[in-house]
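All the exercises in this workshop are built on plain-text protein records. A record pairs a protein's sequence with a compact description of its fold. Backbone structure tokens are a discrete shorthand for how the chain folds in space. Once this layout is familiar, the rest of the handout is easier to follow. As an example, a complete record with its sequence and its structure tokens follows.
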Amino acid sequence: GQLLRGVITSLINFAILKIKYEFIKKINSEALYAILDSKWNFFSKSNYGRMINTFSKEIDQVGAIIGHIAKSFASFVQLLFFLSIPIYLNYKVSIIIILIFSFISFLIIKFGNPLSFKLGKINLETANRLVSNFVETLQAAKQIKIYGEETQFKRRHLSRFDSHVHATLKSQMLQQVFNAFFQPIGIIVIILVFGFFINSGIMLSEIAAIFYSLISIVSLTNTLVGVQINISNFLPKYDQVDQIINEANFHKEKFENNYFDKLQKNITFKNLEFSYEN
């Protein structure tokens, strides 16, 4: 039994990883093709630090949340199974507890999602600035050495690193806080409801079975709510990837079926002008 369980778990994890990396490959390919097919105007306007951060870090993190979503389907199936047991044994107690859990989950998602999205956006922006600063420092390394500005650039880099760490800590702690408080609150709710119904003639065996199932439901609900909060946190990252692709497509190079064979007579320039932006 344990061997079969191990095989099934390994196959499920392999399938989840396959989905995750297929998604990362697809979005990487789409972004790269769009960028390489764009006009030079796109490159002159783009922030290289932002693009490097997107390709080196953010796309992989978006892929990670796809893996979490795939895992949440398995948790949802387990949740339905555990829900059926207490409802079958004592539907009144079970429905009251389930309604309370649903209300608590709704409140967490309603207030947690906007906060998670906001913190995720700040985390992304500080990461963009950190990588941009590093790229600019490397590009200007020669001038920095000539003018002896190493200390100033070190301080600026460390300052942006501290800002990113501060934003990352807030972003990651949000889910930890929800996870830390959801399960004990759930257990307290179960005990209070059972205490209310304890004198209604519920058998001890029923109480044990319902309690075990509801504890499992609390844990699974906590996982699903955590995935939902995580999705909101990673949405700004996906928005940035999508924005880069849209910007590249907007500046897409147009190729016509005109082929150069040889110079017939001369080259003439007409109505030619050049200017910098603004």
Q: What stands out?
A: The two ends are 71 Å apart (CA to CA). The chain has a mean pLDDT of 82. DSSP finds seven helices and no strands in the chain.
